[in-house]
Amino acid sequence: MQMSSIVKTTADVLFPFILIYGFYIIIHGHLTPGGGFQGGAILASGVLLLLLAYKYAESTNVVRQVVMKSLESTGLLLFIIAALSAMMLGAGFFFNWLSPGGILFGDIVAYGSGTANLNTGGLIPIMNIAVGIEVVGAISVILLALLSGIKEKI
Amino acid sequence: MRRNLSIIITILMVGMLGVIVTGLTFGDPGEHPMDRYFIENSQIESGANNVVAAVLFDYRGFDTLGEAAVLFTAALGVSLVLRKRRDD
């Protein structure tokens, strides 16, 4: 069934805002409630909005299954590499070696409650981003596989 | 004969479950020493302001790795079951 142009326009307008909100949740995962899983689910809900508003063949021009599968694999690989990277320095698996004074996300966090600094956390933001990439890929793959069976009258 | 046996086994198992459930105490969990430890030290040790993120990605990193692997396997299974057949 073809959706009305109201639904399509609403999906077009809302899609970038949903993406921005999902990226915000992922990147601020070590400061505010949320994180990789939640932000990835929000991003995947934007993908679902596109899939529901448009026909399946139309929306697969934007949301390609190959891209989503590679995002899924890339996220899991990035997570494992981030976990293994501590072992190259002689520390244990999952050791947060970037946390105090590293190059990236290395600021020292002030003890107690206070204003949040995005440049803290060490490996935690990197792992959040990796998990977010993996979740958006995995849920999009599941949605694409499930919605490909819908019978559409053209 | 088998019917009676199965009824007896069912009653026995329900009774065991009842004994276990009524023996448990619900609510008011005792304070574990790790609770206070996470709240007081996670900011210094992991560098993250969010204690939940510190527990998820630092203290319990293996759990998150397993979750990610489970999600990966789920997507793999769904795309394997619902793949396009070559004959249609």
Automatic annotation (TrEMBL), chain A:
Q: Where are the transmembrane segments?
A: 12-31, 37-54, 75-95, 123-147
What is the membrane topology listed in the Swiss-Prot or TrEMBL record? Multi-pass membrane protein
The record, for InterPro entries, names: CPA3_antiporter_subunitB, MnhB
Any one GO cellular component localisation term in the record: plasma membrane
Domain Na+/H+ antiporter MnhB subunit-related protein residue range list: 6-140
| Record's keyword terms, sorted | Cell membrane, Membrane, Transmembrane, Transmembrane helix
Q: Does the keyword Transmembrane helix apply?
A: yes
**One Pfam family, short name please?**
MnhB
Where would you say this protein principally sits, based on its record? membrane
Spell out the subcellular localization from the entry.
Cell membrane
Task: Kindly provide the name given to this protein in its UniProt entry.
Answer: Sodium:proton antiporter
Q: What is the lineage of its organism?
A: Archaea, Methanobacteriati, Methanobacteriota, Stenosarchaea group, Methanomicrobia
From TrEMBL, chain B:
**UniProt-listed InterPro entries:** CPA3_Na-H_Antiporter_A, MrpA_C/MbhE
Keywords per UniProt: Membrane, Transmembrane, Transmembrane helix
Ranges annotated as spanning the membrane: 7-27, 65-82
Q: Which residues form the MrpA C-terminal/MbhE domain?
A: 1-86
Q: Spell out the protein name for this chain.
A: MrpA C-terminal/MbhE domain-containing protein
Q: Whose protein is this, by species?
A: Methanocalculus taiwanensis
